Amino acid sequence: MTRESTHCFAADLGGTKLAAAMADAHGQIVAELTEPTDRRGGAHVAEQIAASAHKLAQAVGVEATRVRHVMVGVPGAIDPLTGRVSLTPNIEGLQDFDVLDYLRGRFGPGVEIENDVNLAMLGEQTLGCASRCRNAAFLALGTGAGLGLLIDGKLFRGARGSAGEIADLPVGRDPTSQAAATSGAFELEVGSLAIVERYRRQGGAAAVTVRDIFRLAHEGDEVAAAVLDTTSRWVALAVATLQSLLDLELIVFGGSIGVRPELYERVRRALPSHFSRPITIAPSKLGDRAGLIGAVCAAARALRQEREPAEHALHLT
Amino acid sequence: MPFQPMASVTRQLSRRSVFEALLHRSPISRADLAKVTGLSKQTTSEVIDAFAQQGLVRPVGRTSGNVGRTAVLYELSPEGGHVLGIDLGARVTVTLGDIAGRVLAETDEPTDSRGGAWALEQIARLADRLARDNHTHPSRIRSIVLATPGVVNPRTGAIEMAPNITGLGHLNVVGLLSEKLGSPVAIENDINLALLGEIWHGCAQNVANVAFLALGTGVGLGLYVNGQLVRGENGAAGEIGYLPIGGDPLQAEARLQGCLEYQVGAHGIVRRYHEAGGSEVESAREVFERAQAGDPLATGVIEETARLTALAAATVVATVDPQLIVLGGSVGARTDFADKVARVLLRLAPRPVEIRTSTLGKRAGVVGALSVALNKLHDELFSVADLAAAVPLPPPRVHASR
After folding, report:
1. For the segment B124-143, what is each residue's pLDDT rounded down to a tens digit?
2. What domain range is B32 assigned to?
3. For chain A, percent of residues with pLDDT exceeding 70
4. Angle, CA B364 vertex, CA B361 and CA B369 arms, to 5°
5. Does residue B389 sit within a domain?
6. How far off is chain B from A279, nearest CA to CA, in Å?
7. What is the number of other CB atoms lying within 10 angstroms of the CB of residue B287?
8. Omega of the bond leading into B27 within 30 degrees of 0 (cis)
9. Position B279 in a domain
10. Is residue B397 a part of any domain in this protein?
């Protein structure tokens, strides 16, 4: 029999950075690192994930081969049958490379991959603002738009793993247009590129980032404020859409744009006029660590189940 | 109580296994029952004898063709219990079924236009007549499920948001109907039940992730994911009449009736035809007929209705990622209309999704209601309830040493 592992490894792979952590069976993080995502994509990114596990194992003083519970969050849809990743415009070549197979080759069968926003939802459910929620969503707004869904207490992934891929929600730009076919009608209206472009089109200075627009709105720039108003109305429409489909208890706002109070407070104000029943929204409590923490929670749970297989034995009352 | 270790749980498990085998494999011999359940021949025989005594099974003949002795074949007896499925919409439909899932009889008539208590009275009258006409005493009916429009609050059981049937919102429908019919009544949203109907007997058999999009007087969505209905936190999941599609969701009528329903509900179709300059029509069906006859205004209205429906379907695809979308309801189930929706959706939806039209049509809701009534009866008779309970503690013992 193999010796049981004492640590688990979790990673959150983003378009610009990779965050990784080593944790114990309680989900306590004992070492952590963040580095820029290897721009060459595909196999290089998979190798980078494995290398970061080795670095962290070394830092903690455990043998990397004994880290057998691994959870990696990836920004894409994961086919439930094949484990292949799709819809990942932000990382080169990830569709064509079997990350799961590669990592299982390195760390064994205890490796799982999961959509990053699903993990963020799991993080908020376990340690964040959605504890005790059975029907909730994590709405990630940043470069793109994504949704993690909790239905009847469980993560919901859809028939082909692409539930919550709401970049394609037909709210916003004409969904039949060529642009929408590649980027998604909703993302074209609320993604960071769209926000910057809107600011420029309405007469604002060129060469700004969304972060600048938030700052300018704060300093009284009316164009910046108007741009955030418009963006928030599109988001409110999407939230109304989700609510009429799924009747959620809570929608958590996350992602670099979603967590900004300048945005979600505007959305909150817009909601009553867009939907007749009350909708509860809240900013992510875990912020940009939601995905990593969700991955840690999932990996630590798998580790505990290995160590305490008798957890479900008969209980006497 | 005398100590019988696990006797009740093992007995319950055996009974359940034999029942399940009878439900799916009838007619079947004792020997074959033992084979499919994995139980011993003796246990199987004990269970069958007990079932026969309770009136749950009956012999239906003997095996033939084999060398040697023939064996008695058994099936579930209709005397084992009856169930009712009821659909309350523009019409009241009542279906009588038996414990084996056989549909015995069905009746329907237009819903009493006075609504409320009158409609409930009507249901009771139809149910009573249906049972008696089929030589079933109403007291034999052991489980009843009612399909209604609107939202059934999962916590209170109250029916909310059912604008198309008057006077229902203030009534304790469960209590009143249970009392009138003399057996427990459960209520479920009619579109959710139509979806379950399609899954049991219709076009969605063996599909794990399905959406049912109903378009008729109103518009609604049923969602079935990973083998379960999605009801939402307050039972309002799938109330897609309120989707912000098809106009300004801030406008007064859109806010009241729901933005999407205001446009694509039957009244919306008629209204838009009039607004486009079409002459007097009374129903959405007439608009369809005129479109078929070549009326360009009617054609435009139908095309727009299909486009908006496809947009609603695209929100479902992006959010829930179903394997299959079933189009139902008086407008949705029209194949000419469904074809148009499928064509638009092909250009809209991020991922291809299969579209089918409801094969049960108007009966989808009542068939779904019957299926849930059966689930409840089967659960009541054969759930292994004692397994969840604590292991009983031994009685106090006197210790000789003290």
Report:
1. 999 999 999 998 888 889 99
2. 7-76
3. 95
4. 165
5. no
6. 11
7. 26
8. yes
9. yes
10. no
